[in-house]
Amino acid sequence: GATARGETEAGSSSAESGLSAGDGCGHTLLTPHSGTLSSKNYPGTYPNHTACRWHLSVPPGTSLLLTFGDVDLEPSERCAHSSLLLADPQAGTAYGPYCRNASPATPLLLTNSSTMTVLFNSTSHRSGRGLLLSYATSQHPGRGWALNHPPSWVCCSVYCPAGCKGIDGDIWGNPSQGYRDTSVLCKAAVHAGVIADELGGQVSLAREKGITLYESAFANGLHSKRGSLSEKRLTFHKGISSPPALSLPACADALEVAAFTASSWWHEVDALGQPRAWGAERAALGSAGHSWAAEPSAEAAWLELDLGSRRNVTGIVTKGSSEQHDYYVMSYSVSSSRDGRSWRPYRGSSGHEDKVFEGNTDSHGEVSNAFIPPVVARYVR
Q1: Do 135 and 35 touch, CB atoms closer than 8 A?
Q2: Whole-number pLDDT of residue 374
Q3: How far is CA 152 from CA 144, 189, 311, 343, in A?
């Protein structure tokens, strides 16, 4: 089953920003405007005798802002055994070396450079989580940064660097409820579909009264957890012009589907010899009984939704069929059309290749994926 969500229609791709190399590199996502990087195994103990070099480069005329999420390298004299060093060879400036007994003075470093080389080295050691850093540019102000847990005052607007999806930490809740206030804020923003993990971006949020129970969900490639009562909760809004009043804007309403069609469907013969068609019209999310299923031998099967008129589509929700057969779609790509003849593959915020969405892991739960940016289309396939 599937449904699109969006709103009635109202009237760029990016180059790779940097490079990383070395056997000490962990989670890394670098884009022209923001990114996140960590040492190998973070937040577990970083390995012995490794090195990593990241080269950060943002657009000329902007300056790099670096946030030290965590620098936990085993102490040694002058950080000789394990160290973090930031250098701009062109300007002749350097920051560090840093380790546990020589940590950065503040968590935020504002440079006057658009390029920076980040060097991490380790020798033999026994302890240390390693490092977690993020960066953005001076073009992205905002009231604060949020790489890990939000500060108690957080509200209205923060900036989330690209790559939050892969950092350590848990989230509790879902897009419709909001999130337990101890959730990793930027990770929750990706889960809620208000920013693309590939690019990061500005996030508008509010802290509202908590609820008794936060239900888990799988959305935008992330699992949230089922969580207990918290005093406050985080709710997100897709715009940054004003604080949100609700956790989901009106554009998250389910769109009506005028017609379903498919490349093929399964003509089942049940145990009693009775025929049953798993036709395209069975694909509406929430319909009783069995769903749509393609012909078992079919390759490159597709399901098409006709929305009746051009709409602004902000995402899609899928669910399997739990009736008698444990069927579900694990991954899928999306194409859209305004006229039913010319089709455009969805490439998401990166713009480089067709996006493959993570689908369902069982036949019972619903999985939500956001379109960032949205698509204007009558037909979604």
Answers
A1: yes
A2: 92
A3: 12, 17, 39, 47
Give mean pLDDT, residues 145-157.
58
Query: Which residues belong to CATH 2.60.120.260 in the chain?
Result: 259-380
Classify 158 as helix, strand or coil. strand
Per-residue pLDDT tens over the stretch 198-218: 989 888 888 889 999 999 999
Position 125 pLDDT exceeds 90 = yes
Instruction: Measure the CA–CA gap between 318 and 367, rounded to whole angstroms.
Output: 5
Domain 154-237 bears CATH identifier 2.30.110.10: no
332 three-class SS: strand
Q: What is the pLDDT of residues 319-332, one digit of tens each?
A: 998 777 888 999 99
Residue 37 · residue 118 · CB < 8 Å: yes
DSSP 310: E
Of 330, 334, 324, nearest in space to 365 by CA:
330
Record the pTM. 0.81
What whole-number distance in Å separates Cα of residue 57 and Cα of residue 330?
36
C-alpha to C-alpha distance for 189 and 200, rounded to whole angstroms: 10
CATH class given for the domain over 25-137: mainly beta
Q: Cite the residue boundaries of each domain of the chain with CATH code 2.60.120.290.
A: 25-137
CATH 2.170.130.20 boundaries in the chain: 154-237
Alpha-carbon gap, residue 331 to 106, rounded angstroms: 43
Q: In a 3-state reduction of DSSP, which class is residue 250?
A: helix
Fold assignment, 259-380: Jelly Rolls (2.60.120)
**Residue 285 is encoded by which pair of tokens?**
């999310």
Question: What letters, b where the CB count within 10 A reaches 16 and e where it falls short, cover 336-369?
Answer: bbeeeeeeeebebbeeeeebebebbeeeeebbbb
- Cα 30–chain centre separation: 14
Residue type, 198: E
pLDDT in tens, 1-38: 665 555 433 333 333 456 778 899 999 999 989 999 99
Find, among 41, 93, 49, the residue nearest to 72 by Cα: 41
